[in-house]
Amino acid sequence: MSGHLVLADRIQKRRGAAVLGVVGLLISLLCVRLVKIQVVSGAELLASVERQHKSRSVIPARRGMILDRSGRVVAASRQMPDVFIDPVLVDDLDSLSIEVGIRVNVSPSEVRQAVLRRADSRYVVVARCVGEVEAEAIRELKHPAVGLSERSLRTYPLGSSMAHVLGFVGRDGNGLEGIELTLDEHLRGCNGTRATIRDARRRALWREERASTPPVDGGHVVLTIDAEIQRITEAALTRTIEKFRAKSGVGIVMKPGTGEVLAMACYPAFDVNDAPNVDQAIRRNRAVTDPVEPGSTFKPFITGGALAGGFVSPTERIDCGQGRYYAGRRLIEDTSPHGMMTLQEIVCKSSNIGMAHIGQRMGAEALHEVMARFGFGRRTGIECPGEDAGLLHPLARWTSYSVTSVPMGYEVGVTPLQLLSAFSAISNDGLLLRPRIVKELLGPDGRPIGSDRGPELVRRVLPSEVARYMSEIVLVSVVEEGSGKLAKVPGHQVLGKTGTSKLSFTDKRGYEEGAYLASFIAAAPASDPRVAVLVMVRRPDAKLGYYGSKVSAPAVGEILAGTLAYLQVPPGEEVAMRAP
Fold it and tell me: pTM of the predicted model, to two decimals?
């Protein structure tokens, strides 16, 4: 009997030891698990909990305004949030679709379909850029699945005006073209963040201030452009292109004494507020991106350089024959025979033969040097993206015909801005200034950043006496007596030059039949030029007219008259004609 008791006791002890062993093993495993959770996976798990109960959202910085030189707002931003739904937190989609739809004026079926299409997402936008009334209605709904996503909407109050200058921003708020792109970093500022503590249903409980950072709003940009002068330019350019059924055109207004661009217009224009839906070819700022062969508007630069270099004198008479002249095997013709002419008469009557003689006297090296001095073949440095350097062939690529072609404005490519900038140098006592379209930068508080740098001198391109002779005598005679008569402005003496050039094929050598570029460039008043204007009209209907004197000169006269009146420039006395 006692033996059985001893055996039972031993079995009981073994079972107890086994149970204790199992319990000890489980405790050990639990300790290992706790150590792993606490030490190895602790940071990851804690982060997961924080992600569930904390959220971080972006507080977009307000993009800075763009203003014209008089302080008119031409680009601004306003907060217009998007409405989104988190499908994971939706209990009754049909009811919620109705609740949201009536608050943002969207069909409940559209809301429902939007959520169903992206049911696996945590962020489904059902209404974009809603107004303050709709946003407040969504806030009052207080549904954990519905929220507002901060968004800044860029608006352009003047619609299509200055479209090619301003550019536009993308959906992410970054500048894509124009000044919006060039000065994007200054305009966009720096976004802030908002940290929010949420409950298990992702409902906001409170904002965690210490983990939040406020946004820094973007700075503002003041342009040199004047909205009223821009309007005058755009209106004249549009009327001209429609009248002559042209394909496109460019109009630029500049202050010769400072290099400031007062207007820059391209036709066709487009509404900046709808820019993403506009063809890229229309959005291109042709004033700086499209070089052309300038034709006779190029003659003042060559004749000015010839005078400065002593290749011709003001009183010398050059034999222009009877309207036909062979330069080697090449026939050069004038519209009518002129015989013996002075340099002033060659420019006034736009004689190709006279320019060919001057080019042959100067030779390739001197011609190339004059063109480079005026800035052709390199970018002006204006604050517009995509500026083209134009085309100035190296001397190694010049042919025997180049010395007669270049003085007539062929075998060279210049942008409209380059052309007006160089012409302004002649009327600015021979000083070439860097053109600019940005007047100053302002901080978010509206205070200037740095000081206005003022006019930036590039170089002297002509001696003062030569520049004055060219502007006050030679180029004035073009308007008073020559092909620029339609650009006259009552009360002001105008200096200018016409140009009519053939358009070359884009895919092969040679020129298109009946395709022309009609140009006119001018400044006024001649005694103290306050404004310089260029109008280029591309592919006018040849049946209606294609000469720069008929197509573009009247538009330039209209822009000059309107701008001088707007700037309150008083009528002046005519300058006395004198040779240097």
Answer: 0.83
What's at 308, amino acid-wise? A
If phi > 0 it is left, if psi is from -120 to 50 it is alpha, else beta; for residue 167 that is left
φ, ψ of residue 288 to 5 degrees: the values are -125, -15
Q: What is the pLDDT of residues 472-518, one digit of tens each?
A: 999 999 999 999 999 999 999 999 999 999 998 877 888 888 999 99
Query: For the chain, what's the residue count?
Result: 580
Looking at the domain that runs over 227-566, which CATH code has it been given?
A: 3.40.710.10
Q: What are the helix (H) ranges across 148-298? A: 163-166, 178-182, 184-188, 227-243, 280-283, 286-289
528 contacts: CB under 8 Å, gap ≥ 6: 572
Q: CA-to-CA distance for 215 and 205, rounded, in angstroms?
A: 22
Within 10 angstroms of residue 235's Cβ, the number of other Cβ atoms is 16
The widest CA-to-CA distance across the chain, in whole angstroms, is 155
Paired tokens of 550: 């008929």
Residues 345 and 190: their CA atoms lie apart, in Å, by: 60
Q: Sketch the domain layout of the chain as residue ranges.
A: 227-566
Partners of residue 568 on adjacent β-strands: none
Classify each residue of 313-346 as buried b or exposed e, where b means 16 or more C-beta atoms within 10 Å of its C-beta: ebeeebebbebebebeeeebebeeebeebbbbbb
